[in-house]
Amino acid sequence: MRKLAVIGLVLALLVVSGASPGNAQSQQQSLAFFDATTVHPGAKGFQLADYDRTGKRVIFYPWGGIVTDPSGVILAYHTDEDFSSAASYDAVDLTALLSPDATGFAGGFLDDSSSWSYFVPFRKNYNGTIYQTANDLAVRFDLTKDLADPSAYETFHINLLPNPPPQTGWITGAYANGYAYYVPFATPLPGQPLYLPHGILLRYDTSKAFADPTAWQWYDLESQIDLRAAGFQSVAFKPPWLYLVPYYPGNNLLVRYDVTRPFSQSASYETIDVTTLDANAIGYTGAILSGDRLILVPWRKRIDLVNLPEQSASVAAVFDTSEPLTNPVAWSFFDLTAVHPDARGYQFGWSDRNGFVHLVPSHNFATGLPPPFVVWDSSQAFTSGSSWSSYPNSGYPTTGAPSSTGAAYDGVYAWLSPYGSSATGGTGNSGLIARVDASADADQDGVPDNQDPGDSDGDLLSDIVEHYCGSVANEAGRRPERMDGGFAATDDDGNTLVDEALPGGASGFDCDGDGYKGSAEDHVYSYLPQTDGDQKTCQEYDTAHPNPNADVKPSLRWPSDFNKASSPLDSFNKITINDLTTFLAPLRYFGTDVGDNPGDVRWDLSPGPGLFLTDINIVDLTAVIAGSTGNPPMLGGARAFGGPVCPWAP
User: In the chain, where are the structural domains located?
Assistant: First the structure.
């Protein structure tokens, strides 16, 4: 009788439901802002940020300000949560959690597997004054743990090495071939607003314990390579070369190291003075890789690091890394003021998945404000003004506007790391995070991909979905990262990573095409340790599920698929009446709450009770046969109930 009742109910629903379009998505602003000081009063004055793809969070590195105390407050934003809510953030003062020396880090970097985040030591407080002194405390953070967990951190004082380097003070870094490299910058002189540049390249062998002195090496580029090989401020790794980008006034020598060759041999290094190619190619802070191209980001040009007046730099450079370093033809330069007269003073940036290179606006000393955003279309000539575009930084305050130092990019959004008030040259007093959603328009219909329900490349995934799930809308060969069948161990989205987690924010979308948003899949599979349901689609039945019927072993991939029976009615890898009857027999899930039966959350397809009294209700049953879940994109919008089998090999 129960089965007949369900059949009757299904037939009624089929008459009125019809094929339904997917849920409409709200429009997204290009810029949004959040003040991190509402999370922690010390959450301001950061230097760089990274996207932790394992934990789906953005890590902002504690720095402080040039004329303010160094900061030890680390901040993390959970990207699957509301950007505008303080509850989506964690903040911890490392000076209280670890050591008073855990402060003033000049940025940080992640390893390739997103397992560790490395904080780069630069400065600490000097006797309670506004001045700083050198800091040698290196810290790394286990990204599998919580920010406030003391056991998540490991520390090492570089000066404890048997043969310590003569100077300390590094800025940012990079992971390459099992080593963590720290970029040589300058040593803060005690009690003075002065820095002494150096060329000491430091590295840590990640196969050894962090506190093992034998794991650390340093090599003085200034004394061994060239007297101008000092005062760098950014780095990029394009195998096999580690590129150190010049910044410090008077030190215009770009150095690259072949990481496959001996670390302490001068023959492993190559150099070029970029000012011999363009006299205005100075003051870079940022190295962005886009394919084989290395883009240098212009920040500022000064006679020294203390005396004013300041001047912002505007000449960007690009190098074709497939060519010899000293080949002039491999280099091109472009003055950004040709795009916008105020386009000066950028720090770092990112290359998006559509091939556009974005420079982070920091500070134009002539206007006292951040410059406009500038973007290069890397498919076009670097030196052509038509290859560049700019857009205003609308939403920033017009007085005391905060500058930014770098960005973290997850494939959808970029989060700019807040530093300080441009009105005072950057005092480390800003916690205003800017979030950028700069979407392409694949089909040139005037609707950005992040708002476009169409399917530009015909791969059965809308432009909206591809945008937020980390793919591109105009290449059918690229799709959101999958982990099943022929998609396993491949780079599906074309971002050079394999089987990585989806970008932050993707949970609001159906990335694998089975009709269910990631948030719904996270919910129905929450009785299991798996977190990748939205990256798999067909079969893989949960044979350990506690339902007593041997055939009621729901799929770990397609939420609508509950019954794997092949006879008398074949329900294997497709949706039939067998899947619907599992709501009532042999255990009754329909009309119950999650927790009443073991593993019952698997039937709560539309999470929560909604307008009904119980969690598992008619809305969950309807999800199997109607709407976007009943007519999933992977079937071309065809009805799954009584329709084709799941199209992907397991």
Answer: 1-22+509-650, 31-436
